[in-house]
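The records we work with from here on pair a chain with its fold. Taken together, the tokens spell out the fold as the letters spell out the chain. The record below shows the convention in full.
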Amino acid sequence: MPSWPLHLSADKSEESSPVSTNTLEEPLQSADSTPEASLEQSRPAVKMASTSSDIFAEPIGTGPPPSQIKQRKDHPAERLRIHAKGPLETNKFFSNFYMGSQASPAYLHPYSVYWAKGSGDTKSWGLAVSQIEASQRVFGEPGPSGAARYFASPSGIQHLCLSASELGKDTVLTTDEMSAFMGQISFRPKEGAEPCIRFHMLQGSGFITAIYNNCQPVLQTAIGWKTVTKATKQPKPGVEKYKLLMENGQKWLVYARQSKGNPVDLQVASATLAKAKGDFTGIVQIAKDPGGGEAVYDQACGAYATDMTLSGSVRGAQGNYSFAWKKGGDQNAKLVMFALPHHASSFDPATKAGETAVKLQTTTKGIATAVAGDKWTMVEDRMPISMAFKPWTPEKGTINSIPDAAKAVIHKIALLEAAQDVSKQSDQNSMYFSGKVMLRPRGRRAAQVDTRLLTCRHRLCIDAR
């Protein structure tokens, strides 16, 4: 740990002399001033066939479920502090904010976030942010095939926490807006109080953005920082920038843009705590820099995604789909959002031109790439439009001829699997295997069934060739 006391230092790499922690060297410019040139250059529009309709615009069906499916008007899971109006979707990536303890993670890829709720080394009452490196994953012992039986990414590491002095043991977390791709949560000092901090939760967010409403920002870490450095040159007018070098050698960036009143003036209190000098109204954004990412984040800071719209079209075996984000903050700045490998592999030329060299590990979905742009378009040239219930391969298409012997084996296995106690089979001590185990009957009989199933699959593969 560093020697005491810790001081907020000036970033000497910004071609300017050190500054005081209490004053600004240059007058604050308007947050609405024209930002620097965008990272995204002029790009050609995607050229592909399209239809006049959006395949995601209309629901597949709006009628009631079949009469054989029982209905109930309540829900077994309590809806905790949901203020959103209208129908509520289930199984969302942000559902942990209104279920159970409200303190389980939401995985945004590459970041995971959760309500610290006074826990951990920081004892924070704000939002804890984590990003796990590949080297931190834990692998189980090898199985018969030599592959690890399982792997896990650690959770609950409070790399940084975005909080406020007003938050404490009476803090409540509410979900105020919900859509298909976004959940807006608020931290309130107590039940019924106005929000102190708001967050728009979207997967792929380039920054974790806290929207402060006249309260004192607090930044905490369980890792500890070696240095906290304030840039003496603003990345764009009206935006303050801080660099955090952590005890584990990682680098995080902090950006703050006021919407009214005074800018953020962070004061380092210890190796794990920094506070703004006074109340603040505006946004504070954090991002992890894996190396070489400052220029990318500098261009994108001040803007944040508030929602997303999905659209798509199909013509023959070719289709495309697009993500278009709504944006808050600096409307002149291009968003930076992280793409997963399956997105990047299908980018059209215009979207691909926005790819950057900034890459971060996700928990289970590979390496995420930061992309500059407010809209992405992905193109799929060979969609499996001939796929139906029968066996199918990309090379041969639908396999219409299945041997009678294979059909007989499939029939027997189907009867065995349909006879299982689904509730008991799915109630296991692993969320992953609770689903998988339903496909694997147990015991000696199960081994015989599995052998027959493998034989059946092998025969189908031979026929497909």
